Amino acid sequence: xxxxxxxxxxxxxxxxxxxxxxxxxxxxxxxxxxxxxxxxxxxxxxxxxxxxxxxxxxxxxxxxxxxxxxxxxxxxxxxxxxxx
Length: 84
Known about the structure:
Helix content: 40-55%
Order of helices and strands: HHHH
Number of strands: 0
Number of helices: 4
Strand content: under 5%
Structural class: mainly alpha
């Protein structure tokens, strides 16, 4: 019983310490969503769903979406144009 109580107290203290900025200073929770995070947008990072939609739109228009800035490992995707 002492071990269970100690574990519950330890977890409670850990949650409280991890949430100090959110609970006491009312700072917003960090945005981890790739599609809405401005820092990730600035760096050109896209989520897999968004990249897949771009590839599908490009295929429907009859062109390839790959621009040749990929490694040779991407050559098997069928969209890779090796000649610049």
